[in-house]
Amino acid sequence: MKLNTLAQVISFGLCAQIVSVAGLNEARSLERRKTSILFNPQGLPQLPGLQEATNASRQVGLNLDDVQGDILIGMRKLFERFFFFGILNAPDFKAKLKTEILPLVTSTMQVIANETDTMLNIAFSQTGLVALNITGPTNDLNDAVFAKGQAMDAFNLGDPNTTNWVPEFVGTNIHGVMLLASDTEASINTTLADLQSKLGNSITEIYSLRTAMRPNENRGHEHFGFLDGISNPTVGGFQDPLPGQALVPTGEILVGETGDSVTRPEWAKDGSFLVFRQLKQLVPEFNKFLADNPINEPGLTPEQGSELLGARMVGRWKSGAPVFLSPKFDDPDLGKDPTRNNNFTFAEPGQNISDPTDQSGCPFSAHIRKTRPRADIGLPENVTSNHHIVRAGIPYGPEVTTDETSSNTTEIERGLAFVAYQSNIANGFQFLQHFWANNPKFVHQGVGFDPIIGANASAERPVNGLDPTNTTRNFTLTTDFVVSRGGEYFFSPSISAIANTLSV
Ligand code: HEM
């Protein structure tokens, strides 16, 4: 018998009742695409090549054929659809999970090797696992934050309540999410329509979000205009770190690997918790704030003063160049050089703690300093912090219209479909949001909120250190430029777990 497509090969394997990862690997190596479904913006580290990833993963015994493709690749997707669903008929869904979804689920190796036209990943919420009858103490993933769901966590995250939330995220009805990514929206539409017709009434669509990298010169930049995805940690077994990039234990991102100290069921190994947040960005309002408050520094025009204020709020210029290395003006060459643009610690070279009073280079409150304080909490980072996440988000919504620019008011929703992977939500996303970004006393008393994502339940937010001419000056932000529209917590299982546990 001649098997032509990946799907045929895998269904054949399934008919034979053997769903081994080796079998999947063999099948996957049959197809190779000429162009990548991903885009690698200048300034982000290149993804590892096939050989590099193979060698690295072998060294630590990590099976990248079994890890779903979205977890380690970061913010490089051109188009992505988030399809949130409820399970209506569990036995029917389980059968189709095995025969229809599993053959299309894309592994890390497949993404690296360009062996897919549309990447498909799937992840389940706690209520989704219950619907699949993955219950009882032996199946407990032991992540309390995941177990209660994101709506119950809204208060901890600084959301005033769930009134700003997309209604479908309120409650625990969402059982799972399918992530489909490609270089054209047409490929996503075709794959999704096909899947939906095969899944029939076993599931129901609850909510869906279309997203896309911004066009032209803004590719890779989030809606406020800043290059995003530069500084993601890498894990042992995937890629060697570039200068300044965090190399974290594999188990900080992947469940059950070295560095994950929590007891997990065997089947959960090499899965990862997926935090999804729909974060609306008030871009015209953000731009107005910058235009109204330019840093008044000798040698800078008002426009440059406004750009400097924005850069100090983020900690990087729009090009990606860090303000710590380029404090007064943007340096696009630095921004696009991944060997230099992450190579700093906030301390003087050679010191492992930064000066607790000096925010001339970068405010303590800057978004990248709040969410990854580097030497502020001591080095080496893999010893002093287990609070790393791999970000895999992508913008959603249209570009700002001329009407919105002239009225300084958002009329059409746009923002970031924020995705973060980690092996422990309380140490990862929740910690970053709650204990760091929303905590005006972190990393020192009085530094204020993260001006980008810090949330104070809609109340005003003091922020310190933004003005380099007077770093003790306080700003009071009366607008949340990022508004949470809610989300959900999911578990993105390994491919063998889908085959051998979730679909049986
Ligand atoms: C709309 C919301 C957000 C925007 C516009 C935004 C924007 C950015 C930008 C421009 C960067 C710098 C580029 C880079 O290093 O990749 C960055 C870095 C980062 N962001 Fe966000 N972000 C948002 C939400 C979040 C959230 C919710 C978290 C976590 C709670 C987060 C955590 C991080 C981390 C960990 C880094 C890297 C810091 C480093 O390693 O230096 N971000 N973000």
From TrEMBL:
Indicate the segments forming the Dyp-type peroxidase C-terminal domain, all copies: 225-436
Q: Please give the Pfam families that the UniProt record associates with this protein.
A: DyP_N, Dyp_perox_C
> Which chain positions lie within coiled-coil regions?
none
What region holds the DyP dimeric alpha+beta barrel domain? 66-215
Recorded GO MF terms? heme binding; metal ion binding; peroxidase activity
Q: Which Gene Ontology cellular-component terms appear in the entry? A: cytosol
* Requisite cofactors: heme b
Arranged from A to Z, the UniProt key words for this protein are: Heme, Iron, Metal-binding, Oxidoreductase, Peroxidase, Signal
UniProt lists the family membership as follows: Belongs to the DyP-type peroxidase family.
- Protein name per its UniProtKB record: DyP-type peroxidase
Q: Which organism is it from?
A: Mycena venus
